[in-house]
Design goal:
single chain, two-stranded parallel ribbon
Protein backbone atom coordinates (compact mmCIF):
# COMPACT_ATOMS: atom_id res chain seq x y z
CA UNK A 1 0.00 0.00 0.00
CA UNK A 2 2.80 2.42 0.87
CA UNK A 3 4.46 1.89 -2.51
CA UNK A 4 1.16 2.36 -4.34
CA UNK A 5 0.41 5.53 -2.37
CA UNK A 6 3.80 7.02 -3.15
CA UNK A 7 3.36 6.24 -6.85
CA UNK A 8 -0.23 7.54 -6.91
CA UNK A 9 0.63 10.82 -5.19
CA UNK A 10 2.03 12.31 -8.39
CA UNK A 11 -1.17 11.39 -10.25
CA UNK A 12 -3.32 12.88 -7.49
CA UNK A 13 -1.40 16.14 -7.69
CA UNK A 14 -1.47 16.23 -11.50
CA UNK A 15 -5.24 15.67 -11.46
CA UNK A 16 -5.86 18.39 -8.82
CA UNK A 17 -7.13 15.81 -6.30
CA UNK A 18 -7.06 16.48 -2.58
CA UNK A 19 -6.45 13.34 -0.53
CA UNK A 20 -7.72 12.91 3.02
CA UNK A 21 -7.45 9.90 5.27
CA UNK A 22 -10.36 9.17 7.57
CA UNK A 23 -10.01 6.82 10.50
CA UNK A 24 -7.69 6.28 13.42
CA UNK A 25 -4.26 6.33 11.80
CA UNK A 26 -2.43 6.40 15.15
CA UNK A 27 -2.19 2.59 15.12
CA UNK A 28 -0.05 2.52 11.95
CA UNK A 29 3.73 2.44 11.79
CA UNK A 30 5.56 5.76 12.05
CA UNK A 31 6.68 5.35 8.42
CA UNK A 32 3.11 4.94 7.17
CA UNK A 33 1.83 7.81 9.35
CA UNK A 34 4.58 10.03 7.94
CA UNK A 35 3.57 9.09 4.38
CA UNK A 36 -0.11 9.73 5.15
CA UNK A 37 0.77 13.17 6.49
CA UNK A 38 2.94 13.93 3.46
CA UNK A 39 0.16 12.93 1.05
CA UNK A 40 -2.40 15.05 2.90
CA UNK A 41 -0.06 18.04 3.16
CA UNK A 42 1.04 17.81 -0.49
CA UNK A 43 -2.52 17.75 -1.75
CA UNK A 44 -4.08 20.17 0.76
CA UNK A 45 -4.18 23.07 -1.73
CA UNK A 46 -5.86 21.04 -4.49
CA UNK A 47 -9.32 22.25 -5.41
CA UNK A 48 -10.70 19.41 -7.51
CA UNK A 49 -12.19 16.21 -6.22
CA UNK A 50 -11.59 15.12 -2.62
CA UNK A 51 -10.55 11.48 -2.28
CA UNK A 52 -11.25 10.12 1.20
CA UNK A 53 -9.30 6.98 2.00
CA UNK A 54 -10.81 5.15 4.96
CA UNK A 55 -8.20 3.27 6.99
CA UNK A 56 -8.99 1.76 10.37
CA UNK A 57 -12.32 3.56 10.07
CA UNK A 58 -15.58 2.94 11.87
CA UNK A 59 -18.50 5.34 12.10
CA UNK A 60 -19.13 4.71 15.78
CA UNK A 61 -15.46 5.21 16.62
CA UNK A 62 -15.50 8.43 14.59
CA UNK A 63 -18.45 9.77 16.59
CA UNK A 64 -16.75 8.86 19.89
CA UNK A 65 -13.53 10.54 18.70
CA UNK A 66 -15.44 13.74 17.85
CA UNK A 67 -17.33 13.70 21.16
CA UNK A 68 -14.12 13.25 23.15
CA UNK A 69 -12.42 16.02 21.18
CA UNK A 70 -15.25 18.45 21.95
CA UNK A 71 -15.44 17.31 25.58
CA UNK A 72 -11.74 18.11 25.94
CA UNK A 73 -12.32 21.60 24.50
CA UNK A 74 -15.09 22.13 27.06
CA UNK A 75 -12.85 20.82 29.86
CA UNK A 76 -10.06 23.18 28.78
CA UNK A 77 -12.49 26.11 28.79
CA UNK A 78 -12.14 26.65 25.03
CA UNK A 79 -15.89 26.35 24.53
CA UNK A 80 -19.10 26.00 26.50
CA UNK A 81 -21.29 22.89 26.19
CA UNK A 82 -24.15 24.95 24.73
CA UNK A 83 -21.85 25.97 21.87
CA UNK A 84 -21.84 22.40 20.58
CA UNK A 85 -24.20 22.39 17.62
CA UNK A 86 -24.67 19.95 14.76
CA UNK A 87 -22.32 22.10 12.67
CA UNK A 88 -19.64 22.19 15.38
CA UNK A 89 -19.96 18.43 15.86
CA UNK A 90 -19.73 17.85 12.10
CA UNK A 91 -16.50 19.84 11.99
CA UNK A 92 -15.00 17.58 14.68
CA UNK A 93 -15.52 14.47 12.53
CA UNK A 94 -12.78 13.03 10.31
CA UNK A 95 -14.62 14.54 7.32
CA UNK A 96 -14.88 18.01 8.90
CA UNK A 97 -15.07 20.75 6.28
CA UNK A 98 -16.55 18.48 3.63
CA UNK A 99 -20.20 18.31 2.58
CA UNK A 100 -22.23 15.28 3.61
CA UNK A 101 -22.73 12.70 0.85
CA UNK A 102 -25.87 12.98 -1.25
CA UNK A 103 -25.66 9.41 -2.50
CA UNK A 104 -24.15 6.22 -1.13
CA UNK A 105 -23.99 3.27 -3.49
CA UNK A 106 -23.98 0.00 -1.58
CA UNK A 107 -22.59 -2.86 -3.65
CA UNK A 108 -23.01 -6.57 -2.87
CA UNK A 109 -26.74 -6.38 -2.21
CA UNK A 110 -26.23 -5.80 1.51
CA UNK A 111 -28.89 -3.53 2.98
CA UNK A 112 -27.01 -2.14 5.94
CA UNK A 113 -24.75 0.81 6.63
CA UNK A 114 -21.82 -1.33 7.81
CA UNK A 115 -20.76 1.35 10.32
CA UNK A 116 -19.90 3.72 7.45
CA UNK A 117 -20.28 7.52 7.74
CA UNK A 118 -23.07 7.15 10.31
CA UNK A 119 -23.38 10.87 11.11
CA UNK A 120 -22.70 12.15 7.61
CA UNK A 121 -25.15 9.83 5.85
CA UNK A 122 -28.21 10.92 7.85
CA UNK A 123 -29.90 12.38 4.74
CA UNK A 124 -28.03 10.49 2.04
CA UNK A 125 -29.91 8.47 -0.52
CA UNK A 126 -28.87 4.82 -0.71
CA UNK A 127 -28.82 2.71 -3.82
CA UNK A 128 -28.21 -0.99 -3.24
CA UNK A 129 -26.98 -3.09 -6.14
CA UNK A 130 -26.27 -6.80 -6.28
CA UNK A 131 -22.94 -6.31 -8.03
CA UNK A 132 -19.78 -6.91 -6.02
CA UNK A 133 -17.41 -3.93 -5.81
CA UNK A 134 -14.65 -5.47 -8.00
CA UNK A 135 -17.25 -6.01 -10.75
CA UNK A 136 -18.77 -2.52 -10.50
CA UNK A 137 -18.43 -0.79 -13.90
CA UNK A 138 -19.05 2.66 -15.36
CA UNK A 139 -22.49 1.58 -16.62
CA UNK A 140 -23.44 0.58 -13.06
CA UNK A 141 -22.44 4.01 -11.79
CA UNK A 142 -24.41 5.67 -14.60
CA UNK A 143 -27.49 3.59 -13.72
CA UNK A 144 -27.18 4.52 -10.04
CA UNK A 145 -26.80 8.22 -10.88
CA UNK A 146 -29.82 8.02 -13.20
CA UNK A 147 -31.92 6.46 -10.45
CA UNK A 148 -30.67 9.07 -7.97
CA UNK A 149 -31.62 11.91 -10.34
CA UNK A 150 -35.25 10.70 -10.35
CA UNK A 151 -35.60 10.73 -6.57
CA UNK A 152 -37.34 13.51 -4.70
CA UNK A 153 -35.16 14.28 -1.70
CA UNK A 154 -36.93 15.42 1.47
CA UNK A 155 -34.06 15.66 3.97
CA UNK A 156 -36.18 14.24 6.78
CA UNK A 157 -39.39 16.01 5.75
CA UNK A 158 -42.63 14.32 4.79
Amino acid sequence: FQQYLEEALRDFLDENIRVRFIGDTSVFSPKLRELIQRVEDSSACKTGMVLNIAMNYGGRAEIIHAARSLAEKVRQGEMAPEEITEEVFSQALYTGGQPDPDLIIRPSGEQRTSNFLLWQSAYAEYIVCDILWPDFKTKDLEEALDEFSRRQRRFGGV
